[in-house]
Request: fold
Amino acid sequence: MLGIKLERKSEQPLKRQIYAQLREQIMDGQLNAKDELPSSRELAKTLGVSRNTVGEAYDMLIAEGFAISRQGAATQVAEGVSVKKGEQAVIREKPSQAYTIKADFRTGRPDLRQFPQYLWRQFLHKASMETPSELYGYTGPQGLPALRTEISLWLFRSRGLKINAEDIFITSGATHALHILAELLCGKGGKVLMEDPCHSGMLQTFRKKGCLIEPIPVDNQGMMTQYLQYKDPCAVYVTPSHQFPLGGILSAARRAELVRFARENGVYIIEDDYDSEFRYSGEPISPLYAMDQQNVIYVGTFSKSLFPALRIGYVVLPKPLHRKWSDIRTYMDVQNPIFEQAALAEFMRTRKLDRHIQKMRRIYGQRRRVLLELFKEAFGSGWTPYGDAAGLHVAVDFPGIQFDEAFRKGCLQNGIYITPVEKHCIVREAHQSKLLIGYGHLEHDEIREGITMLRDAMDSMI
Reply:
């Protein structure tokens, strides 16, 4: 009856199978408005199920408005609920070509093989066992107090910053922080002054929030602050301790000029402390925040120092922004997962983070030295490394050579993943001779093999 077929071994209850098939027939016009449905007794007998099962299926149809029931009358199909199936538009997407990557020089990739996963699982287990029941609810947009306290202590140990834990707000990474800051400071149509070149992902974050971008050129000392001449900006985005992608350190004079500009124009500086904890000649650079706690918003993340999937970052906010940040975060996603925050707080309290960063600083520093030595062997003196000895990548300049999109795709076809600096430029053609070489995730033999492949590719394409 009505073409209903029941799958009695299915995990879906019989009443829901009956309901779903009747609803499909009603929506498709096989059952028309005012058509009477069989009595529950009659349909139950035909299908070999209990009358209650059919009654519950009818109740679902009535509750959702697909059927109407009146006392003393048969259940009827409701009016205006038919949605006949039409021809769907076929969208043909160009298939993406898959390449087998043998030399992976992607930037911003830590060596996850070195992370103490077993230890981390212990901290997660401890957090799940010891977290009090009241923290299983909504804990608010600022983040776990214990984690904010440990971050403030860690910033004092590692950067010399004296920060009140109440000024720290936990995020789901640096990109998430920029999404909120773009809405908080700018709104659609607000103007952001950005380094050029800059991280293309961060650039797109601001653009997708409707911000207008004014590029400020970069040299080997970071943002060229003499070009800060634009009127009515809502924020300045800068990576002063290890500029991405060229790796320069913003000089003291330029830092002072940037702070003066922010104060005179009443704007906030967004300081992204991009992977500056991995510095291989001396201590990490003191953040710009140390010069001005009123106009600088400090953004940090644990994606590079621990692992990207952790999705925990933080911002240090001036007090006038606390309430508005909390409002935005509350109606965006409320909070970060509590167990990861608790585990990270304990990881930091027991100094496991400090020791892990110390260990990785040695490993990455050695890999950088190996990379530069192998580059010298492969390319002689026809290249120049850019930036400070820090981070997980190095920018390399080959004067007289142009690395364009065709070169990048040619490398992909040869199994090499590499990024020209041009890909991160707002104004094109200023850095065509530079490549970005990520090495943090590569062992020495992988670096050697990759550079050999890159040299052969350059010989064949250039």
Remarks:
- The radius of gyration is 30 Å.
